[in-house]
Amino acid sequence: MIISVASGKGGTGKTLVATSLAISLKDKHPVQILDCDVEEPNAHIFLKPVISDTEPVCLRIPVVDKEECNFCGRCAEVCAFNAIAVVTKNVLVFPNLCHGCGACSYLCPEGAITEEDKQTGVIESGQADGLSFVQGRLDVGEVMPVPIITEVKKRTESDKIVIVDVPPGTSCPVVQSVSGSDFCLLVTEPTPFGLNDLVLAVETARELDVTCGVVINRVGTGDLEVEEYCKKENIPVLLKIPLDAEIARLYSGGVTLADGMPEWKAVFNNLFSEIMEIVDERNRSLKR
Q1: Domains of the chain
Q2: Which DSSP string do the residues of 233-267 spell out, in sequence order?
Q3: Which of 105, 107, 213, 288 is most open to solvent, judged by the fewest CB atoms within 10 Å of its CB?
Q4: DSSP E strands: which ranges in the chain?
Q5: Burial class (CB in 10 A: 0-12, 13-18, 19+), 155
Q6: What contacts 217, CB < 8 A, 6 or more positions away?
């Protein structure tokens, strides 16, 4: 079972929900948490893992042998990302635009292009009080998180309940993180901004054919438009977390709801049971 925890915007409490869910389940189930928010991973602040393994993530960047190159421009023609350009008798490579697809080297008619590794980030793995923990970290100055996310997800342990902490928004990193999930839990807040970005997140999940449900955080502020939207779209609101000074205090100190207020463990276990029922019902309907 893979549950991705996402949000259309940052600051909704997505990581608080993901880590609280993981901690609540670990006494009854083997659990793995994948922090795919590789530009700013922060699940480790709540879980405090012991990192036992660190691996670099590299992209294959083209290197042009100008002695072999005839400057035909074929490499530039096939590059979908404009990462290579031929100007008169010179070839310019732009590493920050390169996606490492290898088309330029494969299709070079003179065999003048080879590739070299360029590190763009790291994968860190370890344990956090019984949880299996993996996070990606994009190197400072790098601009492409998707290859890091791909490597994080390669470390998914299929015999465990996997909680994926997804980057905020609805762009490529989110698509890569949510793809392949059995369920997507969307964390939002009852404000106009929360509703606007929730709508985008729901559309993304539906495009990926991933069933979703909603957690509304900071209930007690804002308005009821998020709940009205969910009712209209037949999206279950599975959990409401109140606007509460104690919860805010715990969050600011890097303490999950499950650790700081143990009564929430039962709430998150019930949330998981509801998710399982929804997933099982969908699987049954697909078999009919």
Answers
A1: 2-48+129-287 (3.40.50.300), 58-119 (3.30.70.20)
A2: TT--EEEEEE--HHHHHHHHTT--HHHHSTTHHHH
A3: 288
A4: 2-6, 31-35, 50-64, 84-87, 90-93, 113-128, 131-138, 161-165, 183-188, 212-219, 237-242
A5: middle
A6: 12, 13, 16, 17, 187, 188, 189, 241
